[in-house]
Amino acid sequence: MSAFRRLVARDLRLALRQGGDAATVVAFFVLTVVLFPFGVGPEAALLARIAAGIVWVTALLAALLSLERIFQADYEDGSLEALALMPLPLEAQVLAKCLAHWLVTGLPLTLVAPLLALLLHLDAAGYPALLLGMALGTPTLSLIGAIGAALSLGARRGGVLLSLLVLPLYIPVLIFGVAAIEAAIGGFPARPHLLLLGALLAAALPLAPLAAAAALRQALE
Amino acid sequence: MSAPSDLPLPSGGFCGRSLACRRGERLVFARLSFCVPAGGALVLAGPNGSGKSSLLRLMAGLTPPESGDLLWDGTPIAEDRAAHRARLCFIGHQEAVKPVLTVAETLAFWAGMQGDSRGVEAALARFRLAPLARSPCRLLSAGQRRRLALARLVASPAPLWLLDEPATGLDAEAQADLAAVIAEHRRNGGRVVLSTHTPLAIENAMPLSLLDFAPRRAA
Lengths: 221, 219
Hints:
- The structure holds 2 protein chains of 2 kinds.
- Chain A is mostly helical.
- Chain A has one domain (about 5-220).
- The model of chain A has no long low-confidence stretch (mean pLDDT about 95).
- In chain A, helix 1 (about 5-20) packs across helix 6.
- Chain A is built from 9 helices and no strands.
- Chain A has helices spanning about 5-20, 20-40, 45-65, 70-75, 80-85, 90-120, 125-150, 160-185, 190-220.
- Chain B has a domain at about 40-60 and about 85-210: Rossmann fold (3-Layer(aba) Sandwich), CATH 3.40.50.
- Helix content of chain B is about 30%, strand content about 25%.
- Chain B has a 5-stranded parallel β-sheet with strand order 6-7-8-3-9, with helices on both faces. In chain B, strands 2-1-4-5 form a 4-stranded antiparallel β-sheet, with helices on one face.
- In chain B, strand 4 and strand 5 (about 75) form a beta hairpin.
- Chain B starts with 13 loop residues before the first strand and ends in a 10-residue tail after the last strand.
- The model of chain B is unreliable at about 1-10 (pLDDT under 50).
- The interface of A and B includes residues 77, 79 and 220 of A.
């Protein structure tokens, strides 16, 4: 097994054994979305109009909730220091950890999102754009989140700092994710918006590991 | 800055040339030179805060030196960080052990990351952890966790060992195991740099007192 796959497997095993990690994120997503009909009233037309925005904003917040775990535990128990001295470059390790993080948070969020959209009476035409948009957007959330998680290591009240660092960077993903659904419902092609989400992912894939690895080295000095 | 002339600097081995280290605002040590030949053991001595851990982290490449060079067979390690990472095994203060993984899983992971997990069984036996192989690490005592961290040395052989207080929390038997493992490593041409407050039976160790390199205060 390559060192990259070994690290992904270890992070997945940790997430599954510690339990709760993926479950908490999905439960937060479901509960928060379910709050909206109580807050704005059960009128189907109103919910349908804001469904895309609600699902995407809540997915962002749910993803944010889990970011601290990417590096924090490894930093505290000395694993990060040992990992930084392994032959596999730190950038590749960051990518492996992002992949593991996406598998236990982004992927479940993507799979649950259509069910929640159903609850909010999202127009049937919007579902392909919702699923594709989430599939392209959530990996970007993990990658950008890793930069914030690495930068806030060792800071007191790191969790709050992390939200302030990361949420503004999530705005492009939110804009194009929602725009894709709105376009599909309005009878326009969703493809340009999905392509832009793909472009964000293509940019984040090489750049985020570079930035996060640099921040980790700084934290370990 | 040139090395002090009274210290011979052969081109072979793992050497440092007039190293200085800064932690925050404070200069911890300066003009420090050393050389560890194949089979050599360098034992760092000095009171708390004299820079033993800082020197080991600097040797590992975790922190860059304020000035000076680290050389491996005459080549600065800064030129090829990946090669340096591949040849060293650093055991710091923290054991890097996850409570939910078993002892065997932990060791297999670290050895696999180093690139060679064939020695896991032997390493567990060597540090008397074989009976605990299937136990989750949360059940281990402090000394057992320490032994698990040290087992990484045997599980995937690296030519350079950097050990920061390796004997902390070890009982007499485990200390003897550690000394035997170090002796065997050196017989095979391996190098060891370690800091310890516990007397370990290490033959022909080269002592290095960090106090000799404390920066002089402005007079």
